[in-house]
TrEMBL record, chain A:
Location in the cell: Cell membrane
Name the UniProt record assigns to this protein: Quinol oxidase subunit 1
Gene giving rise to this polypeptide: qoxB
Organism: Halobacillus andaensis
Reaction(s) the record says it catalyses: 2 a quinol + O2 = 2 a quinone + 2 H2O; 4 Fe(II)-[cytochrome c] + O2 + 8 H(+)(in) = 4 Fe(III)-[cytochrome c] + 2 H2O + 4 H(+)(out)
GO cellular component: plasma membrane; respiratory chain complex
InterPro entries hit by this protein: Cyt_c_oxase-like_su1_dom, Cyt_c_oxase-like_su1_sf, Cyt_C_Oxase_1, QoxB
Cofactors (names): Cu cation; ferriheme a
TrEMBL record, chain B:
GO molecular function (one): cytochrome bo3 ubiquinol oxidase activity
Catalytic reaction equation(s): 2 a quinol + O2 = 2 a quinone + 2 H2O
PANTHER family: CYTOCHROME BO(3) UBIQUINOL OXIDASE SUBUNIT 4
Alphabetical list of InterPro entries matching this protein: Cyt_c_oxidase_su4_prok, Cytochrome_c_oxidase_bac_sub4, QoxD
The keyword Transmembrane helix belongs to this UniProt entry's keyword annotation: yes
Localization (cell): Cell membrane
Ranges for region Disordered: 104-129
Mode of membrane association: Multi-pass membrane protein
Transmembrane segments: 12-31, 37-59, 80-99
Protein name per its UniProtKB record: Quinol oxidase subunit 4
From TrEMBL, chain C:
EC number: 1.10.3.-
PROSITE patterns assigned to the protein according to its UniProt record, in alphabetical order: COX3
GO terms of biological process kind: aerobic electron transport chain; ATP synthesis coupled electron transport
Similarity section: Belongs to the cytochrome c oxidase subunit 3 family.
Function: Catalyzes quinol oxidation with the concomitant reduction of oxygen to water.
Every Heme-copper oxidase subunit III family profile domain range: 23-199
Pfam families documented for this protein: COX3
Major subcellular site: membrane
Protein name as annotated: Quinol oxidase subunit 3
Chain's gene name: qoxC
Membrane topology label: Multi-pass membrane protein
Keywords tagged on the record: Cell membrane, Membrane, Oxidoreductase, Transmembrane, Transmembrane helix
Source organism phylogeny: Bacteria, Bacillati, Bacillota, Bacilli, Bacillales
């Protein structure tokens, strides 16, 4: 292979990308070396098994991915603003919508939520870490290496260009030769390992490590949504694993699953992909529902209205999520009976979702709302998401779907649910729990600016797309006809509004780091209801000096009434904690090397990486490290300084 | 409640004998009997499910009080089985396309439908140009 | 992260860590069920799509498949005996039965490799048609699991020789036991729905 085949050449935008990658990497290396931070980085972050730090790393990476996906989006909107634009050519446009979709779903939405789960869930249930801290670190590194592998594709080898759904036969070896599509397969496969491990980890954590006395139906609602999301992950991700593996076999080893020769069946890919893909949609929306519920009940200063109905609604949605996948390809021609069955099951989902909407409204009803930025994101979510949901029911009607399918109507619909649902929730959750993570709040004034820019921009961007779709504009076209221009210009303006909102958000982080007051109490918003607010800020690495006994919902409210804390000096005992380890990052680095080898079909590299990975597993098997104990004296010292006693 | 200290684990022996017997029964049903294909397939699938149950309950101790894990293991196995059924049956159902029936009338209907679709497509193309 | 240890009951359940790891493995097995179910679904959908290659009914032979099935069923039984011996506190019993399990597993693999090579000689490979792709992937994934299981058992045998029976080593053996029985369950379904049905239809 020649060097000019290895690197992508001929595109000014990509050259700019290469230069910025080199510059940023050089800058990072320089800063780390100049300030002698390598040891600190390795000890405190790269080898950590602390759920809070892993959560923070997840969230930072997700923000970086949001930037990348957002940049893709702005490029697409620029290209589509006017007819016959020459900003991106067809091939480049195809690559960009593919990476935009994949990055946003797999490498932004999911890691962001998993990051929040990591930080918050152990704290909410009174645990000192997740069930398997080593595995948790492994999950993170598999995600990060998967994401890096996928992202590197635009400068090395070329990006995938068959859409984030990668339908065969287009994505097959015959029609998409070269490494591009392999990047998609290996990047998702690698990060998928981590997601499955996270799912198992959270299930065991929540089932086995709750504070003494905490019953299932006393768990905070975000913990509930995490438990059920993990359940979906455990049952949905293996389907993706297999689907990706089959396509890899097709592309690299000449198998015939989805080919047009050898009686392969291209439609089977769509079937498998959406059997995972639909539950995946709920994997990114259910935790979001959990976040909104926490934020709304905190700032409405009321117990969540209809807690049990909420939990059962989540369970029902999770169950139904496995029974609706065909609605993504009604037009494939599975016949009227098949389509009718899935049309009905799809519309059923609106029922539990409606229940939840009423729960939130019921919580707000007659409450004294504290209008913080986190609350504003949550309040904006309700009407915006309803628009997305209602148009979803329209799409769920099989006969009508023949009109809407693959048009901008669909594009508008899923952005309305994913942005108004997931992205708003990520912002709300980050702002809400930010003081717990970093010891200071995000500036509220700047937060409002970023909120209004983003939310108004969002509606301006996507509302016109419903109508563009009804006017016949198909998705994934790289150029528009003059009739669609007015709506598209509006849409592009909105997209840049969202970009400004995101930029202000990033500035808020920097500004608040420098100027925000440091937190002195653990209960940052004064109205905290669940156990995470019972810990002091900054949170000690062992979370709880003493774990409170829980016998009600909203455990911290009762704790406050009784004047108890998580530092009862006479109940202190040595705390057992896991040791840090560099194994996860090294292990996953080897697997990343193996995946990179497979992408270019360099078998020596793939096999070497895989063997090194197996060696790492053997090392792990012989590792009998028992962790260590934190002595009572140290706990006392830490708690006193954290609580200002 | 379990037989930890017994020299001979009765449960395991019974399970083993049963699984060998069921395997032989399934083989006979498939290769030696005169049943119709439909009966053979459903019969041997049921035998397989019974054997899976034997492994789970007699060998794997899916319900074990001392594990302190309550109902979670068999709950997960149960839901795993449900999901397996959905994935397999659902794929077959979805991938059947309604075109593989050998019933004459139905085939005719589909042909007609296809023709209609074709006509509509043609019309659409005319409008487009 | 409680390190309290119970005084009674099977060793593997005495620490909370042991209980949690075993529970985690059950959940992992649930994921494995779906993984294999997806492979079975692919096989079922692609059944009969042999294109120009040899149809399965001409290649599948009841004899060898029955031998493989009995080997694996017996290995599952001996693996159960090994865990039973472990719970009686006998390292020797555990080790001996596990070695028997290993030998049975290896012979199963030997037959499977022979079978695959035989099919390849008859013109049925991963590349020859959709049906054979699905067949080799399904049976091959199971075979790969068996291979991993064999390597894993060897590692654990070294560990138990060095450390004796502790809550951690018994937990590890209990889990490999679950894994091995699970592979047997998967094989029962492969035997039934791939080989038997393949020979009938």
């Amino acid at each position: 292979m020649q060097l000019d085949e290895f690197f992508v050449t001929g595109e000014p935008l990509i050259y700019a990308g290469m230069v910025s990658i080199v510059l940023v990497s050089a800058a990072i290396l320089f800063i780390l070396t100049y300030f002698k931070k390598w040891g600190w980085l390795w000890r405190e972050w790269l080898t950590t098994v602390d759920h809070k730090k892993i959560g923070i790393m997840y969230i930072l990476s997700a923000l970086a991915m949001l930037f990348r996906g957002g940049a893709d989006a702005l490029m697409m909107r620029t290209q589509l603003a006017f007819p016959n634009m020459n900003f991106l050519n067809a091939q480049h446009y195809d690559e960009i919508f593919t990476t935009h979709g994949t990055v946003m779903i797999i490498f932004m939405a999911m890691p962001f939520l998993i990051g929040l789960m990591n930080v918050v869930v152990p704290l909410q249930i009174g645990a000192r870490d997740v069930a398997f801290p080593y595995l948790n670190a492994l999950s993170f590194w598999s995600f990060l290496f998967g994401a890096m592998l996928f992202n590197i594709s635009f400068v090395i080898g070329g990006s995938p260009d068959a859409g984030w759904t990668s339908y065969t036969p287009l994505a097959g070896a015959a029609m998409s030769p070269g490494p591009g599509q392999n990047f998609y397969l290996m990047g998702l496969q690698l990060s998928g390992i981590g997601t499955l491990a996270s799912g198992i980890n959270f299930m065991v954590t929540i089932l086995k490590m709750r504070a003494p006395g905490m019953k299932m139906f006393q768990m905070p609602i975000f913990t509930w949504s995490t438990l059920i999301t993990s359940f979906i992950i455990v049952f949905a991700f293996p389907i993706l694993t297999v689907a990706l593996a089959l396509m890899t076999l097709d592309r690299i080893f000449g198998a015939q699953f989805f080919t047009l020769t050898g009686e392969g069946m291209p439609m089977m890919w769509a079937n498998l992909f959406w059997m995972w893909g639909h539950p995946e949609v709920y994997i990114v929306i259910l935790p979001a529902f959990g976040i909104f519920s926490e934020v709304i009940s905190t700032f409405a200063r009321k117990q969540l209205f209809g807690y049990k109905a909420m939990v059962w609604a989540i369970i029902l949605i999770a169950g139904l999520s496995f029974l609706v996948w065909v609605h993504h390809f009604f037009t494939m021609g599975a016949g009227a009976f098949v389509n009718s069955v899935f049309s009905i099951s799809t519309m059923l989902i609106a029922v539990p979702t409606g229940v939840k909407i009423f729960n939130w409204l019921g919580t707000l009803y007659k409450s004294r709302i504290n209008n913080t930025v986190a609350m504003m994101w949550s309040l904006a979510f309700i009407p915006s998401f309803v628009i997305g949901g209602v148009t979803g029911v329209m799409l769920g009607m099989a006969s009508a779907d023949y009109q809407f399918h693959n048009s901008y109507f669909l594009v508008a619909h899923f952005h309305y649910v994913l942005i108004a649902g997931t992205v708003f929730a990520c912002f709300a959750g980050l702002v809400f729990w930010y003081p717990k993570m970093f010891g200071h709040k995000l500036n509220e004034r700047l937060g409002r600016w970023s909120f209004w820019f983003f939310v108004i921009g969002f509606h301006v961007c996507f509302f016109p797309q419903y109508f563009a779709g009804l006017d016949g504009m198909p998705r994934r076209v790289f150029t528009i006809i003059p009739e669609w221009m007015p709506l598209n210009i509006i849409s592009t303006v909105g997209a840049f509004g969202m970009g400004v909102g995101f930029a202000i958000f990033c500035y808020t982080i920097v500004y608040s780091y420098r100027y925000s007051e440091r937190e002195t109490s653990g209960d940052s918003w004064d109205d905290g209801r669940t156990l995470e607010w019972a810990t002091p800020t900054p949170i000690p690495f062992y979370n709880f000096a003493t774990v409170p006994h829980v016998d009600s919902q909203d455990a911290y409210v009762k704790l406050k009434e009784e004047g108890k804390t998580t530092f009862e000096e006479d109940e202190l005992e040595p705390i057992h904690m896991p040791s840090n380890t560099g194994q996860p990052i090294i292990f996953m680095a080897f697997l990343a090397i193996a995946s990179f080898g497979l992408v270019f079909e360099w078998m020596w590299m793939a096999i070497a990486g895989l063997l090194a990975g197996i060696v790492m597993m053997v090392i792990r098997s012989f590792d009998y490290d028992e962790g260590y104990h934190v002595e009572v004296d140290e706990i006392k010292r830490t708690e006193r300084s954290a609580r200002g006693l | 409640m379990t037989d930890h200290n017994k020299r001979i684990p009765t449960q395991h022996v019974v399970g083993f004998v049963l699984s060998i017997a069921l395997t032989l029964l399934a083989t006979w049903a498939a290769l030696g009997s005169n049943l119709s294909t439909m009966w053979i397939i459903s019969g041997i699938m049921i035998l397989a499910v019974i054997q899976a149950g034997i492994q789970l309950f007699m060998f794997m101790h899916v319900v074990e009080f001392e594990s302190k894990n309550g109902h979670v293991p068999w709950n997960m196995m149960f839901h795993g089985a449900v999901l397996a059924a959905i994935v397999v049956a659902g794929s077959l159902f979805t991938m059947s396309f309604g075109f593989t029936h050998d019933h004459d009338e139905e085939e005719h209907q589909y042909e007609q439908q296809e023709n209609d679709d074709q006509e509509q497509q043609d019309e659409g193309e005319h409008e487009g140009h | 992260m409680s390190s309290h240890e119970l005084k009674t009951g099977p060793l593997e359940y005495r620490t909370q860590e042991g209980q949690m790891t075993i529970l985690g493995f059950w959940i992992f097995l649930a994921a494995e069920i779906v993984l294999f179910a997806t492979l079975f679904a692919t096989y079922a959908v692609l059944f009969g799509r042999t294109a120009d290659s040899t149809p399965p009914a001409e290649l599948f032979e009841p004899g060898i498949v029955l031998i493989m099935t009995f080997l694996l069923l017996t290995s599952s039984f001996t693996c159960g005996l090994a865990i039973h011996e472990m719970r009686r506190g006998s390292v020797k019993g555990l080790r001996n039965w596990m070695i028997v399990t290993l030998i049975l597993g290896l012979s199963f693999l030997g037959f499977e490799i022979y079978e695959f090579i035989h099919y390849a000689h008859e013109g049925a490979t991963l590349q020859s048609s959709a049906f054979w792709s699905a067949f080799f992937t399904l049976a091959g994934t199971h075979g790969l699991h068996v291979t991993l299981g064999i390597g894993w058992v060897i590692l654990l045998l070294i560990q138990v020789t060095k450390r004796g029976l502790t809550p951690r080593t018994s937990r590890k053996f209990f889990i490999i036991g679950l894994y091995w029985h699970f592979l047997d369950v998967v094989w029962i379904f492969i035997f039934t729905s791939v080989y038997l049905i393949g020979m009938v239809v």
